[in-house]
């Protein structure tokens, strides 16, 4: 058992529906336009398909779909690794609002649509009615053969990407050699020119300070001399006055205690003034106009400003610019290591070709087996004597999928040379070939539930009965759900669901319900004879259900 239950609320034209599903082969039928594929669309949404506002039933605020599965063993590890509960039952839910925004849950825990798709691949395999269109797409054909072979092109694709990247790096390095040489010469010239200056970080500010001091040296000496004279020049100097005031107050402290704090203040002033005098004397002893040093500073500042203007930088940024040029030159030297780039390209090429050869070997081994299996399936689908061939040829150019051109060829009649499917097969034959491929490859997957959405389009008669038997046979080991318009297929089903459209003043709605006994006879008769059921068609329906399907009294 796999898919146990699906419930829909306000989905397209379904107001509310809850449907239980069973093991074996279940047929889903209904009149044209009743919405037989709505159930398939709902399953696809629950398994991560693209959501849009058109899925919300008119008049509702959002659509809600829940699908309950038995959790297969191979899905448990994925659930645990992704942080979801791994119980025996697996509940997937998806809601879509009127803005087309969706939310998803796995076992009640918020999930992404990508996670739903990854999990859906382990649970359910859907074969659509237009599957034949992919037979003309090289990538689809190649992927189908890889799946049959039990291999994958993912490693080859990754190696291809690495090889192409290495090729681009090498090619760009080769093409850029001339440009890089010019750039290298430019950087070398700039570095050599600025290196002569040797600018240090923070040096510009220090040079400006020194230059200002030397250019105003005489004024500074005059100011220092005048200040020293004012402090300690003669008896009228500040120090002399402070000393006299300090002595007079200190001499009267024993009479007036309030003089004591004033004396302390004057003592501090004397000490500080003395320090100033000492510093000024030292400055005057060592200070010098030094016109030679001023000339040196003028020259260095002029060169600094000239280089800054030439390279359109502020003087403060020149040391940083020099380091940046040196870094660029070093990177150019490293990128021009053609030997390393050629070695990397060769290593990537070797890895790709090794992976591609292994993939080609697996494909060559699987192609005859897949050809035989599909050819055998075709014999029972009205293409007796037809032959299917999986062609694996060396491609003109390698690519992400390896070094092979894979094509599906078919010969519809004995003695004919197989040719590309899309060029020689009619619409009906394409549908039958697609069905043969679907049935053959569906036996290989791990998904416990198979859904066939009108893949029997374009077939009828004895072929339709064969299709029904094939699906009935698949239903022995897998759960099979088929949307069909063929009574022969429906009659082979273990279970039968009917889709009906109901019209009312509130609008049109669709509902799905199981049919058994005479109700099933009536539905098969409708499929046989159209809208008007006759006793003849009902008798035919009873015969089909009695011969092909289980006896009516034992159904369900």
Description:
The longest helix has 42 residues, at 338-379. A hairpin with a 2-residue loop joins strand 14 (495-504) and strand 15 (507-514). Helix 5 packs antiparallel against helix 13 (338-379). A six-stranded antiparallel beta sheet has the order 2-1-4-5-6-7, covered by helices on one side. A six-stranded mixed beta sheet has the order 8-12-13-3-14-15. It has a three-stranded antiparallel beta sheet with strand order 9-10-11. The protein folds into three domains: 1-129 and 448-513, 3-Layer(aba) Sandwich (Rossmann fold); 179-335, no CATH class; 515-556, no CATH class. It contains 19 helices and 15 strands. It is an alpha/beta fold and 556 residues long. Helix content is 55%, strand content 19%.
Give the SSE map:
Layout: E1 3-11, E2 14-20, E3 25-30, H1 38-46, E4 62-70, H2 73-82, E5 89-97, E6 102-106, E7 109-111, H3 113-123, E8 124-127, H4 138-149, H5 154-175, H6 177-197, H7 203-215, H8 217-232, H9 238-251, H10 259-286, H11 291-310, H12 318-335, H13 338-379, E9 387-399, E10 402-411, E11 419-420, H14 421-424, H15 427-442, E12 449-453, H16 461-477, E13 479-483, H17 487-491, E14 495-504, E15 507-514, H18 517-529, H19 535-547
């Amino acid at each position: 058992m796999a898919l146990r239950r699906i419930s829909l609320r306000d989905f397209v034209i379904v107001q509310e529906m809850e449907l239980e599903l069973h093991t074996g082969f279940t047929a889903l039928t209904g009149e044209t336009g009743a919405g037989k594929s709505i159930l398939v669309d709902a399953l696809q949404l629950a398994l991560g398909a693209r959501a849009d506002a058109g899925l919300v039933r008119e008049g509702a605020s959002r659509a809600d779909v829940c699908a309950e599965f038995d959790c297969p063993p191979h899905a448990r590890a994925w659930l645990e690794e992704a942080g979801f509960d791994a119980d025996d039952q697996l509940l997937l839910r998806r809601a879509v609002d009127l803005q087309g925004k969706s939310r998803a849950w796995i076992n009640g825990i918020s999930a992404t649509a990508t996670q739903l798709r990854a999990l859906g691949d382990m649970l359910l395999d859907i074969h659509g009615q237009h599957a034949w269109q992919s037979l003309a797409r090289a990538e689809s054909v190649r992927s189908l053969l890889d799946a049959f072979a039990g291999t994958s092109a993912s490693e080859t694709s990754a190696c291809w990407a690495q090889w192409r990247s290495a090729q681009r790096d090498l090619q760009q390095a080769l093409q850029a050699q001339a440009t890089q040489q010019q750039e290298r010469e430019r950087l070398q010239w700039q570095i050599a020119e600025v290196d002569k200056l040797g600018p240090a970080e923070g040096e510009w500010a220090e040079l400006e300070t020194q230059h200002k001091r030397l250019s105003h040296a005489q004024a500074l000496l005059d100011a220092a001399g005048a200040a020293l004279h004012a402090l300690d020049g003669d008896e009228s100097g500040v120090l002399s006055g402070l000393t006299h005031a300090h002595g007079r107050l200190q001499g009267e402290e024993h009479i007036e205690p309030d003089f004591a704090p004033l004396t302390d203040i004057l003592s501090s002033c004397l000490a500080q003034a003395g320090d100033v005098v000492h510093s000024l004397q030292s400055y005057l002893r060592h200070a010098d106009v030094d016109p030679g040093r001023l000339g040196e500073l003028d020259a260095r500042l002029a060169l600094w400003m000239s280089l800054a203007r030439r390279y359109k930088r502020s003087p403060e940024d020149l040391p940083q610019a020099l380091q940046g040029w040196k870094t660029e030159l070093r990177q150019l030297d490293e990128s021009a290591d053609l030997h390393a780039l050629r070695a990397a390209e060769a290593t990537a090429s070797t890895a790709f070709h090794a992976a591609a050869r292994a993939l080609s070997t697996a494909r060559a081994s699987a192609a005859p087996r897949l050809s035989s299996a599909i050819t055998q399936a075709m014999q029972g689908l009205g293409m007796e004597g037809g032959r299917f061939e999986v062609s694996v040829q060396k491609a003109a150019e390698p690519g992400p999928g390896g070094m092979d051109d894979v094509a599906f060829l078919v010969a519809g009649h004995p003695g004919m040379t197989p040719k590309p499917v899309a060029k020689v097969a009619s619409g009906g034959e394409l549908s039958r070939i697609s069905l043969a491929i679907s049935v053959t490859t569906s036996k290989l997957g791990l998904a416990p539930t198979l859904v066939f959405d009108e893949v029997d389009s374009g077939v009828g008669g004895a072929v339709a009965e064969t299709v029904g038997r094939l699906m009935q046979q698949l239903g022995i080991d897998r759960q099979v759900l088929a949307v069909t318009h063929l009574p022969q297929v429906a009659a082979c089903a273990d279970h039968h669901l009917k889709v009906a459209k109901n019209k009312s003043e509130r609008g049109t709605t669709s509902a799905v319900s199981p049919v058994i006994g005479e109700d099933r006879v009536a539905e098969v008769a409708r499929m046989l004879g159209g809208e008007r059921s006759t006793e003849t068609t009902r008798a035919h329906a009873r015969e089909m259900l009695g011969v092909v399907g289980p006896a009516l009294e034992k159904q369900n």
